[in-house]
Write a structure and sequence with these properties.
The chain is built from 9 helices and 12 strands. The protein is α/β, with parallel strands linked by helices and 289 residues long. The protein has 2 domains: 7-214, Spore Coat Polysaccharide Biosynthesis Protein SpsA, Chain A; 241-288. Strands 1, 2, 3, 4, 5, 6, 7, 10, 11 and 12 form a 10-stranded mixed sheet that branches. α6 packs parallel to α7, α7 (225-240) packs parallel to α9 (271-288) and α8 (243-265) runs antiparallel to α9.
């Protein structure tokens, strides 16, 4: 089936009972003739894994004994896919709903350009027509990523990074750069993977010919989302910034810490999460020396 490369759709589940049936129903309704589904469960406690097994027994299931994070959890599914002769691996969040032609259009885009390493559909926000992700930019000066939210017309719209909620990756990319970096427990792993893929000579693209809907149900443990966003962002820039940008980053990091001390003094919400992220990042740097 050369015209229909083998695709494995990897869905990482963590307490996703609210969305997992809807997500899997959409995936199994895809009109592409050559795909398999792998559900990786990060030790859910809400019965979502059991429900997925009950209604979608055709999927492959991998259960981790603890919540090992987004990167490590997805890597378990990626390894399974590659061992079973995947040509492409599609990472898909549990809180998404796909369009019927998603794989068909993504494969068509990928097959037309062998230099495309990773592709994403257009991502809409929940049940609205608002764009949630139409491409990404990395702001190295302000140490942040930016989701483009404009409608796009170019079929191969170039992007600095592909969002991990719906990232389809050519198998050769994994062979060349490895899997997701497990130093990232949650967030920023997609930007890191994208930067490594581009450094290896691959292009990244978003196609508007198909879309998914993303309901933005965070898999972060309750009350910890800001913590993981901050510490993972710091890890990303430490790993990927140029020497010059690392010098700037050191100054920017100091200024952000000063702001955090001020926010703590004012009793601002979430300031303690930011402080904890800074402190834990400092410990990581000391341990790495």
């Amino acid at each position: 089936m050369d015209q229909f490369p083998k695709v494995f759709v990897v869905i990482l589940n963590y307490n996703g009972r609210e969305f997992i049936r809807q997500c899997l129903a959409g995936v199994f309704g895809l009109n592409y003739p050559n795909f398999e589904v792998v559900v990786v469960d990060n030790n859910s406690e809400d019965g979502s894994l059991e429900e997925a097994k009950k209604f979608f027994s055709r999927a492959h299931f991998i259960k981790n004994e603890e919540n090992i994070g987004f990167s490590a959890g997805n890597n378990a599914g990626i390894r399974f896919a590659l061992e079973h002769m995947a040509d492409w691996v599609m990472l898909l969040n549990q809180d998404t709903v796909v369009e019927k032609n998603m794989l068909e259009k993504l494969i068509e885009t990928g097959q037309n350009d062998p230099h495309l390493g990773a592709i994403s559909p257009l991502v809409l926000r929940g049940d609205t027509s608002k764009v949630w992700f139409s491409g990404g930019k990395i702001d190295w000066w302000r140490m942040k990523t930016i989701h483009e939210r404009e409608s796009i017309k170019s079929i191969n719209y170039r992007s600095d990074f592909i969002c991990g909620c719906s990232m389809m990756v050519r198998k050769e990319v994994f062979a060349k750069i490895g899997l997701l970096d497990e130093d990232f427990f949650l967030y920023w792993e997609d930007a890191d993977f994208s930067v490594r893929a581009k450094k290896a000579g691959y292009k990244l693209a978003v196609t508007p010919e198909t879309h998914i809907r993303h309901f933005e149900k965070s898999s972060a443990p309750e009350g910890s989302k800001i913590y993981w966003l901050v510490i993972s962002g710091l890890i990303f820039f430490q790993k990927n910034a140029t020497p010059f940008m690392k010098l700037w980053g050191s100054l920017y990091y100091f200024l952000r810490r000063v702001k955090n001390w001020m926010d703590l003094g004012k009793g601002k919400k979430e300031a303690s999460q930011v402080r904890n992220a800074y402190n834990d990042f400092k410990k990581l740097c000391q341990e790495a020396k």
